[in-house]
Design a protein that fits this description.
Layout (H helix, E strand, L loop, with lengths): L1 H53 L5 H11 L3 H6 L13 H12 L22 E2 L5 E2 L2
Antiparallel strand pairs: 1-2
Amino acid sequence: MNRSRQDRIKELESKKKQLEARIQKLKAAESAKKRKEDTRRKILLGSMVMKLIETGYWQKEEIYEQLDKFLDKQLDRKLFGFLSYSKMKKNDLQVCNWIERIFDTFPPLAVSPSEGGGFCQGRSGARDERNGGAAHP
């Protein structure tokens, strides 16, 4: 009888490991889905910005001036033809606030850029004008 309890414990531990593996697999799939959705949103947003520039609704020079201030990775800067890092620092609030104003013109997403995962995430001191100027967490 004592042996059967040990066998039952081993059996349950094996099932536990299988369930933990299934849980991990489901979490990974959900994470991948969220990354794909985020990438799709960025692509669509970029397409919209390009269309607004093409139609003359937004001025390319203004967008590129702000983009020059925003981009800090050399590879990204090279893609847009910027030679070196802009004089403005990564934490520059002007750039951050400018981008937030762009997002204010769109209907809210499931997660707004100011609530996590957005342009100002991790930028110390960034202010959210929609929240009475309160600092982002």
